Amino acid sequence: MSQTYIDYIQAPEDRIDADFWKNPFGAQIDYDELKFLYVPDHVSTYIAAQLARQVYRYQINNISTREQITHAVMITMGGLLPGVLLHDHLAWTLNKNVPPINFGTMGVKYYAGPGDPLDEPFIKHPLSIDVKDQVVGVVEDLVDLGGTARFVGQHLTERGARKIVLIAPYLKNTGIVKEMDPVIFYGYVPKDTWIITPREKVETLVKRVPFWRDNGATLSDCEDNLIKIGYPRYLIDIYLRATYERG
Questions:
Q1: Which of 19, 92, 119, 244 is the most buried (most CB within 10 A)?
Q2: Of 161, 152, 153, the residue nearest 125 (C-alpha)
Q3: What is the tens place of the pLDDT at every residue in 207-225?
């Protein structure tokens, strides 16, 4: 593994490398075909601020079109963290020509685990806000195959939404930009890379360690993998052995 990867993810808050995080690469580890990108808390906060700037620019550009975003739907679970961070920037306004955005939620499940999509997405929790005649931002953490975004966009349209704007920190599917225009995003990640956001550090560990074990990894091998990915010592100490020894 290149030490450069660790340098990027361990950089302090005042030294975040914007160019790296716009086109990041993950850590290559043993016993897995996927690469893993560990996103620290302060990097998630930074990316959300950059997304909020883009949303604000969209709002300014659409003052005359009357297509400004008035509502945002956070898709749980993934969209909750970027959505809450965006809420801090966008749920109020200092510009009378830019409306504050009303945030709500909708629960959708499409992945059983890293790199393991279900046959089709399904609704776990119903839409919490009225979107009729509104321009709605759909907030996700990552757009991969685009199935969730399409599913949610269609669902909101059926409930009267006038226009959908997809908002996500990262895309894997570049075609979604043309298909669901407009799309507001921060960067791209390779299709073979699993992003570990602050809300799924433990979830990824407890789902992937057994996979490595079943493919021949020892407890020490799993520890080395987690260190290469960038996991902090305290999470390894709490969860690794119990997860590895679980039947």
A1: 244
A2: 152
A3: 999 999 999 999 999 999 9
**C-alpha span between 204 and 246 (Å, rounded):** 15
Tell me the two tokens of residue 192: 């073979």
pLDDT at 20 over 90: yes
CA distance 165 to 181: 7
167 touches 184 (CB < 8 A): yes
| Sequence spans of domains, the chain | 3-38+200-245, 43-188
Cβ-contact 205, 235 below 8 angstroms:
yes
Residues 6 or more apart from 94 whose CB is under 8 A from it? Answer: none
The residue type found at 128 is S
Report whether CATH 3.40.50.1100 matches the domain 43-188. Answer: no
Check: CB of residue 192 under 8 Å from CB of residue 35: yes
Decide which of 176 and 116 is more confident.
176
Look up the pTM and report it: 0.92
